[in-house]
Amino acid sequence: MKVMKSIIPVCIMLFLCLVCAQAADSAGRNFTVLSPPDGSLVESPTISLVVRIESTNIDDIRVEVGGRRQSPFKKQMGRIFVCLEGIRLSPGGNPLRITGVKDDKKVEELNYRIYYRSDLASEANTAPAGYTRYYFHTPGHEKECLSCHRLDFSGVEDAPSTPEKSPCYVCHRKMLLSYRQVHGPAAVWSCTVCHDQRAKRHKMDTPQPDEKLCKGCHESAWQGKKYKHGPTAAGECTVCHNPHGSDEPSFLRLKTAELCVACHEEVASQPHLISALSGRGGHPVYKSPDPFNPDRDFTCISCHNPHANDFPYLLGSDSSSMFQFCQTCHKM
Q1: CA angle, corner 15, sides to 9 and 18, nearest 5?
Q2: What pTM was computed for the model?
């Protein structure tokens, strides 16, 4: 009994110390950003923020990226966790200002850094030191959300009868609803057709290279072609195409000419031969109709096949020389 009496005060003291430590840790903190952490590197143009509300001193969370106010889909306030979905990033470093507000007045502000790595921006191909690649679907990151969300995708229907029945919908709806056109599987929320929750690299990953998955639905017309475009040869379809959706034809990530110049920067600084000889300042993309299809703009793919061809420079013709190809439009 004497031993027990001596232990009880010690236990009480340890408990009080733990409570005081927790109180000190959260003192003055009104909210905490759980996901993604500061200094994350992502490869998606949109992210979701998961915020834990620590006090009743705030009634709204606001987000700015690079000084511009965002309008994400938001779970109602009054909950312990608030999810802000569909925050758009620009390639490269993105400074985020996350503000807790009460009665329309700022109460607390956090500054975050998120890096969006993109193959289509030379200045954003590689993140500087200090950023860590972030994947949400890991046991450690998912555990905070399991009280509200189902994150075990085993047994999930490949084609749910309504979007709301997909466990992906609640967190990724804005990513799709904001696009003018949505890729087939994504449009019907058949996410597990492409994403594998048992993938070896990380949960909900897709096979690499992309072509392994894409060719299951999309017949490749470039097999056996003599010349292949770089991404085509590597099987990296998603370098140019967004597998979820896009505002551009064929789910391109950018407008056609902008997409091509993103990798072929020399095209923008070295005018087309015929235009240079005639004194004009570059090939007239976006300035005239496609000579082969007057209903669309004249762009790089008016002359070059973006995937593969049997002719040099991926020229879309059976011409025996580049000069002969030019004569298709320029009668000389």
Answers
A1: 145
A2: 0.80
Q: Degrees (nearest 5) of the Cα angle 312, 323, 329?
A: 105
pLDDT in tens, 279-319: 455 566 766 778 777 788 888 888 889 999 988 888 876 66
User: What is the pairing mode between strands 308-309 and 132-133?
Assistant: unpaired
How far apart, in whole angstroms, are the C-alpha atoms of residue 120 and residue 331?
Answer: 36
**Is 150 within 8 Å of 168 (Cβ atoms)?**
no
Pick out the chain residues at pLDDT < 50.
Answer: 1-26, 274-279
Prior bond of 209 cis (ω within 30°): yes
Tell me the CATH number for domain 31-134: 2.60.40.10
Pairing of strands 132-133, 40-42: parallel
- What share of residues in the chain are helix, strand, coil (percent, to 5)? 30, 25, 45
Show Cβ contacts of residue 99 under 8 Å, excluding neighbours closer than 6 positions: 61, 62, 63, 64, 106, 108, 109, 110
d(CA 332, CA 324) in angstroms, rounded, equals 10
Q: Distance from CA of residue 11 to its chain's centroid? A: 50
Angle at 43 between CA 38 and CA 46, to 5 degrees: 75
Alpha-carbon distance 174 to 294, whole Å? 35
Cβ neighbours of 69 (radius 10 Å):
10
Pair of tokens at residue 102: 């009460």
Distance, CA of 20 to CA of 2 (rounded, Å) = 28
Helix (H) or strand (E) holding 50: strand 46-53
Could you give the residue range(s) of every CATH 2.60.40.10 domain in the chain?
31-134
Residue 40 CA to residue 117 CA, distance in Å, equals 10
User: Do the beta carbons of residue 303 and residue 315 sit within 8 Å?
Assistant: yes
